[in-house]
Amino acid sequence: MSGTHRCWAEIDLSALRENLAWIRHAVGAEQRIITVVKADAYGHGLKQIAALLMQSGTDVFGVANLTEARAIRSVGKGWPILMLGACLPDEVEAAVRDQVMPTISSLAEAQSFSAAGAKLRRTVDVHLKVDTGMGRLGAKPKEVASLAQAITQLPHLNLRGLYSHFSSAEDDAKYSCLQRELFVSIVDEIKTLGLKPDFIHLRNSGGVIFEPDTVSNTVRPGLLVYGIIPPGKRRLPSGLQGKLCPALTWKCQVSYVKTVEAGQRLSYGGTFTATKRMKVATISAGYGDGYLRSGSNHSKVLFDGRLCPVLGRVTMDQMLVDVSRVKSVSAGDEVVLLGKQGKKEITAAQLADWLGTIPWEVLTSITYRVTRLYRGGHAS
Ligand SMILES: *Cc1c(COP(=O)(O)O)cnc(C)c1O
C-alpha cells in the first residue's frame, strides 16, 4: 500500500467510534452530541468521517459552511446540521433550502432568515448564540432575552437552540468559570420567559474535559472526536490516560540516503551545516503536504522507532532528516510524521509544539495531496 503513495494519512475509523463512545460515557447518556466536522473533519476526510459518525450515533453535525453541509447530506439524510459561523448574506436562502440550522447573533440576521423562510415557505430552526466572553459571534448577554422573544415572534423561525462558546477552557479556569456562570444565568432567564430551546450547549472539547455544566443538554466537541485532548495550561483530570485514541497517523517514505561530511550545508538558505560526518535521509513530505515550514531545523520524525531531527529548511515536497543513529536505512522505508511507530509516538500536541502551532492547525494543514487511507470501518 505504502508503495503507491509518497505521503499519506492512515485513519483508524474504529478509533473514532471509540472516541465518540468515550465522550458519550464521559458526559452522560442524556447529553446529545454535536460532532464538529468542519475543515474536512479536521483533515480526516469529511464524507468518510460523517458516515462513521452516523453509524456511531452522533446526534447533530457542526459545520463551517454550506458545502460541508451538502457533503454530509450526500452521505446520509436526516441528520440535523448546525452552521457554527454566521451565514453570509448571500448564503441565507441556500441555508434555508438545505435545512441547515443557522447561528443567530442579531435581530437583523433573525429577520433575514425569517424573510427567507417566508419566501421558501419553510420554518427555519435557528440556534441563538450569546457572547459570554469569546468575542467572536453572539448577542450581548443583556440583549439575549429580547432577541429570543423576537425570534419566537417572527413567523418563520423556530428557536431550536441556545448556545455559547468557551475561549480558553483548556487554559484559564477563572475565565471559563465566569463564562459558564454567565451562560447559566442566561439559560435561567430564557426559561423564565417560558422558552425551551431543544438544544442548549456550551462545551467544546476543552469544555468537556475541564468544565462542569449543569444547564446544557448537548456538547459540541471537535478535537476529542479525533482522539486529541486540547493541550493547555490546566492540569488534566486524572483517569484520562489512554481513554482517547488519535485516529490519524501521517506517514511518508525515505526517498534517498547519503553521507555528508562536516561543513556541508543542507537545504535552501544553508541554514544547517553538518558539524561532523552524518547520515542524512531525504524523505517524501514537505510543506506542500502541509508539514509546516516552521519545523525547519526544529521538528523531528519517527524512523526505525527513533526520533530523528529535521535538518535545514522544510521544502515543498521533501525534507532532510538526521538518520546517523539508525543502523540500516534505504529508500522506501516508512517514516512517521505524526502518530505511532513501534513504541514511540509523536502526538499532535508534540508536533504542534515543534511547529509553533496548535493540534487543530496541524491537522487542518494536511493538504489534499496526502492520500487518506481508511482502516477499521465499513464507511463508504
Ligand atoms: C470548532 C468549534 C467547536 C469545536 O472545537 P474543539 O475545540 O475542536 O472541540 C465547537 N464550537 C464551535 C462554535 C466551533 O467553532
**Shape call:** elongated
**Low-confidence stretches at least 5 residues in length (pLDDT < 50)?**
none
Q: What is the β-strand count?
A: 19
Total helical segments: 11
Oligomer: single chain
Cα(first) to Cα(last) distance is: 19 Å
Largest β-sheet summary: 9 strands, mixed
Strand residues, percent: 15-25%
Q: Specify the helix fraction band.
A: 25-40%
Radius of gyration: 24 Å
Hetero compounds: pyridoxal-5'-phosphate
Order of helices and strands: EHEHHEHEHEHEHEHEHEEEEEEEEEEHHE
Structural class: alpha/beta
Mean pLDDT: 97
Describe this structure in words.
The protein is α/β, with parallel strands linked by helices and 380 residues long. It is 29% helix and 24% strand. It has helices at residues 13-27, 38-43, 46-55, 66-75, 92-97, 107-120, 144-153, 173-192, 205-210, 348-355, 359-365, and strands at residues 7-12, 32-36, 60-63, 81-83, 103-104, 124-129, 157-163, 199-201, 218-219, 248-260, 265-266, 272-273, 278-283, 300-303, 306-311, 319-322, 334-341, 344-346, 371-375. Strands 1, 10, 13, 14, 15, 16, 17, 18 and 19 form a nine-stranded mixed sheet that branches. It has a four-stranded parallel sheet with strand order 4-3-2-9. The structure holds pyridoxal-5'-phosphate. Pyridoxal-5'-phosphate binds next to α9.
